[in-house]
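Thread title: Can someone regenerate the structure for this chain?

I was given the following input by a collaborator and told the matching structure tokens would be attached. They weren't. Posting the sequence so someone can regenerate them.
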Amino acid sequence: MTEPTYAELKERLERAEGILRSLEHGEADAVLSRDGPGLVRSKGAVSKEQMLMAELSESKEHYHTLFNSIDEGFCLIEMIYDEHENPMDWRFLETNPAFEKQTGLRDGVGKRMRELAPDHEAHWFETYGKVAQTGEPIRFQNEAKELGGRWFDLYAFRIGESGSYKVAILFRDITESKAAERAAQLASQYARSLIEASLDPLVTINAEGKITDVNEASVQATGVPREQLIGTDFSNYFTDPAKAREGYLTVFSDGFVRDYPLAIHHVSGRIIDVLYNASVYKDDKGNVVGVFAAARDVTHQKLLDQQLWEKNTELESARITAEKANLAKSDFLSQMSHELRTPLNAILGFA
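Best answer:
Regenerated them for you:
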């Protein structure tokens, strides 16, 4: 059996409240007097009396059963206004057993809110006062600092017609879920701060190759604002889109890539050489959600490598030139030695 919604509870409570008002206003007697003054009640009239009283009794029992069994806190209040019709307080007319557990307020029936919580925030009185005056129901969440900082999810609606100061309030304590939500927000902010602290472009990509998140370094690398990057194709921002697409598809198939070379095309026309390291990330059930990729800018390194290569080429060329010069020198000296030895040998021979 599913739990009733706030709207269903409201409908049941209003219906029961309406029947109870009939009982309070003596409508049973009105039914009994429909035969007219001076006339003797017929058996049919007596039957109507019995039927109405039975219906009222059953509805009252149903009302209190519903009232006492729901897990949500419930209270019926009557707004109190000052001489300028500004809401200043309310009196509790009814509360259910869950009321005390949800709010921490004891023995509230008949007491004013200012008696129980003197510093209760003004916005609560303004909100319920507006509901009583306009008849417009409201669903909202807010914190009651005076009630120990508890957070509530509330649904408030007027009971009765225009001019009624009664407001019914269904609510539940959501302090724990709010604390968990806050913890999740802090964890998200912490993770975000770590991502933004990275000087390397970071990006997440879904299975369709669309960018789902980036850091500021990615914005700087592409020259494209974050809101424009998100939702676009990852491969659009590289000099070789096909190679970029092949890279992230490899991650989805193999689980990762290391030092995958690509070149980011900045909107200014500048080219940034990068090496990507990427891996898949999963949800809490182990299903692959997307790819997390980090790019290391190697433009300066490539420039240094190019300069080193050029220097090495120059040195190699100089070495070859020197070797050739040494060989030429050796050949020259060898030839000169031969030419000098030949006439000397002739002279020595005559001697």
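The beta strands are 73-81, 87-95, 138-144, 150-158, 166-173, 202-205, 211-214, 256-265, 271-282, 288-297.
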